[in-house]
Amino acid sequence: MGLQDIAKLREMTGAGMMDCKNALDESGGDLDKATDILRKKGIVKAAKRAGKVAAEGTVKVKSEGNFACVLEINSETDFVAKNDQFQTFVDEILDHLLKAKPENLEDALKSQMENGKIVEEYVTENSGQIGEKISLRRFEIMEKGDSDSFGAYLHAGGSIGVLSLVKDLKDEDLARDISMHIAASNPKYLKKEEVSTDDLKKEEEIYRDQLKTQGKPENIIDNIIKGKMNKYYSENCLMQQAFIKDEDKTITQILKDAGSEGTTVEKFTRFELGSGIEKEECDYVKEIEAQM
Asked: N or C: which end of the chain has fewer CB within 10 A?
């Protein structure tokens, strides 16, 4: 058995290099038997589905000590996303990421799990067994200090997941409420200082053109724009937003009242399931024909 055999089996089945090598080892170099081995494991089936769009699935959040992780794993259908095997698989990947703490998605896919499987191979294996394309799309790992809190919130069983890190706060319930607020308000920025110069210029130009069209005098346009920009900050910047549980106070004020001058949201990650994935329309007749 050589590299040519591995390459040929990969071309025949669409399976990964290591899966092909292992199948050839198990079959004693027999290509037909190796193909059957891959089919039994469901890997060929998964490879054939590689072109499918995986836009359903789930988002999950978990914390352990001073580390926490939010991730999105996709499937093709909502039906599979609710499958016990899929949910168990997602939990296994989440636990692994928390322990391994890979730097990025590429490193995560190449990392080895406690069961001895490489994450990428394990994803393919489960894709074959479940019968749908499954993909680890994205994740974020955060580390906090002993005096900080994680805010972990899941909406509607995994359609939106938020992980926030709140500095100098021991109130985990409030940290969770902040993440619930983030899930609902979907802020573009953490604070107004993060708004780019280009975005500011764009908004100001839009407001100025609107006001000129409305016939507003030049000498009051600048003052009106200042008011509109403050509203823009209050709508798009987390720390300037009115807290959904107490709209008389901003997030900044709520945290200051609950903690200290240094209590603030240091960072947050909000994953909305399938966001940015273009879903394909399903022709069920062709789908069935393709599988027969």
From this structure: C
Give me the residue label for tokens 């080895």: 112
Q: In this structure, are residues 175 and 149 in contact, taking their beta carbons and an 8 Å threshold?
A: yes
Contacts of 125 (CB under 8 A, 6+ apart): 41, 42, 43, 46, 117
Homologous superfamily (CATH) for 56-143: Elongation factor Ts, dimerisation domain (3.30.479.20)
Residue 47 is predicted with a pLDDT of 56
Q: Whole-prediction pTM value?
A: 0.76
Structure token digits, residue 187: 């802020």
Strands 67-75 and 56-64: antiparallel
Alpha carbon distance 125, 199 (integer Å): 44
Total residues found in the chain within this entry: 292
**What residue ranges do the domains of the chain occupy?**
3-48, 56-143, 192-267
The closest of 72, 60, 86, 59 to 137, measured between CA atoms, is: 72
